Amino acid sequence: MAKKAEADAPGIAILGGTGDQGLGLALRFARAGAKVVIGSRKPERALEAAERVGAAVAGAKVEGCGNAEAAQQAGIVILSVPFEHTAETVKAIRTALAPGQIVVSMGVPLATALGDSAVRTVGVWQGSCAELVAELVPDGVEVVSAFQNVSAHRLQALEEPVECDVVVSGAKAARGRVMALCALVPGLRAIDGGPLANARIVEAITALLIGLNIRYKLPAGAGIRFTGLPNP
Ligand SMILES: NC(=O)c1ccc[n+]([C@@H]2O[C@H](COP(=O)([O-])OP(=O)(O)OC[C@H]3O[C@@H](n4cnc5c(N)ncnc54)[C@H](OP(=O)(O)O)[C@@H]3O)[C@@H](O)[C@H]2O)c1
Predict the structure, then answer these.
(1) I need a surface site. Which of 21, 28, 112, 127 has the fewest CB within 10 A?
(2) Could you tell me the maximum CA-CA distance found in the chain, to the nearest angstrom?
(3) Residue 188 Rama label (left phi>0; alpha psi -120 to 50; beta)
């Protein structure tokens, strides 16, 4: 059985951080000085991604390893795999998770999972990708939904602010810890998204954004901003 994680370990693990979105978050968090552990099914791919982050961010505290090992090394574990591979990824690392850890669900149940279009979603029995993840993690591990509406392209454009609101949903204390991560990235603003079930709304917005990107020809990707909220 895998070694259990330290729930309050500093740093952020990004499983599937070898892909566009995870790498973008890794670059941003590393630039903010956070310790980042990139996970992959193949440790050598994670090491390669960590090297890319190290080359882009002077002094980056970044490592690469297998997904389960990455999950053991951070208090916050971000799932950055396509929706259709979410359940198998969580099942593969669940024995490495420990009570008190936070798993962040960023997945969107795009209809591409069924060979259909990315401008619409498919129904998930539990209500959302985040609620599916919540059903799979061990007791005592909190699931928080965040970052679904942020464009990978904008995350990777390190010299520009990202300019996007991030709706963060889940149990109060855990959601507060993930909201604090947003403050590490210039242009990201955390929005208190209340209970995890609101992930249903947030995940669907990503399909709308993908449609906007197509209709308005936006290769860098559209984002969202809420108005009328008090300043943080
Ligand atoms: N791209 C965006 O602009 C964007 C925006 C908002 C939200 N998101 C969400 O962020 C997540 C990651 O998006 P992405 O664009 O970075 O995805 P991606 O590049 O397609 O995949 C990310 C990683 O998932 C892992 N993966 C691929 N197939 C897998 C499988 N069969 N089983 C387990 N892991 C597998 C791969 O890592 P290894 O091969 O290294 O294991 C891959 O590098 C998705 O849930 C997406 O909905 C993306």
Answers:
(1) 127
(2) 50
(3) beta
Centroid of ligand 1 to alpha carbon of 45 (angstroms): 13
What SS3 state is found at 33?
A: coil
Q: Which residue has the tokens 């980042």?
A: 36
Cα 198 from chain centre:
16
Q: Considering only CA atoms, which residue is closest to atom 27 of ligand 1?
A: 81
Atom of ligand 1 nearest to the CA of 206: 6
The Cα–Cα gap between 140 and 52 comes to 34
Q: Kindly report the backbone phi and psi dihedral angles of residue 139, in degrees, each rounded to the nearest multiple of 5, phi listed first.
A: -55, 140
Q: Outline where 77-128 has alpha helix (H).
A: 86-93
The secondary structure of the chain in percent helix, strand, coil, rounded to multiples of 5, reads 40, 20, 40
Cβ within 8 Å of residue 183, ≥6 positions away: 190
CA of 81 to the centre of ligand 1 (A): 3
Identify any residues that bridge with 190 across adjacent strands, giving them in sequence order. Answer: 166
Structure pTM? 0.97
pLDDT lower than 50: segments of the chain:
1-2
- Helix (H) / strand (E) element for 188: namely strand 188-192
The DSSP bridge pattern shows strands 61-66 and 142-145 to be: unpaired
What was the pLDDT predicted at 1?
42
